[in-house]
Design a protein that fits this description.
With 180 residues, this protein is an alpha+beta fold. It has five helices and eight strands. An eight-stranded antiparallel beta sheet has the order 4-1-3-2-8-5-7-6. Strand 2 and strand 3 (34-38) form a beta hairpin.
């Protein structure tokens, strides 16, 4: 697993066209029509977010193994839709000990169980951004076929209805499609 940051750049060009942006809480991102995803910064963009792929911090080995066995790979040809969701958690979230966050994340909210219900239709990759000094703690990248957008919507609704989401301080949802 590489600790090299993935770079998400919103601007006028990119391999993903931004279909819609929804700011659920906190400040908005500057306007952009496209998103580039790579490993280096893009010049002349409206905004750039960085995050690294790391170990699954709130997941047990059986949960991790089940996720790996069920999740489809990213960059599948039929997965022409994507969603980037940058999230920042509250100070109260980060003041909890790791085991307290894990308990709220999984035992109370059922985050992994909810996510497993959308597999393999929705593939995802979590990027950690907090330790990079970014404005968001996590950048979650989802990919799915247009036929599975309703499955993705149900996943988001279920996650946002959990007690864990009361600790979200900033959240933006960027709906994307592969640019022609």
């Amino acid at each position: 697993m590489s600790m090299q940051p993935h770079v998400f750049s919103g601007g006028a060009t990119g391999e993903w066209r931004i279909r819609a942006v929804r700011t659920l809480c906190g400040p908005e991102l500057p306007a952009a029509t496209h998103l580039s995803v790579g490993f280096s910064a893009v010049e002349g963009v409206a905004w750039t977010l960085r995050g690294t792929v790391s170990n699954l911090r709130y997941t047990t080995r059986p949960e991790r193994d089940a996720l790996r066995a069920s999740q489809a790979p990213l960059a599948r040809g039929e997965a022409s839709r994507a969603t980037l969701i940058p999230i920042a958690k509250t100070a109260a979230w980060w003041e909890m000990a790791q085991d307290e966050r894990r308990a709220l994340f999984e035992e109370v909210s059922g985050h992994t169980r909810i996510g497993m219900a959308a597999l393999p239709a929705v593939a995802r990759r979590l990027h950690h951004a907090r330790d990079l000094g970014e404005p968001f703690d996590f950048l979650t990248w989802f990919e799915y076929a247009p036929a599975h957008e309703a499955t993705f919507d149900a996943l988001l609704a279920a996650l946002r209805a959990t007690p864990e989401w009361s600790y979200v301080d900033r959240e933006i949802e960027l709906r994307l499609e592969r640019a022609g």
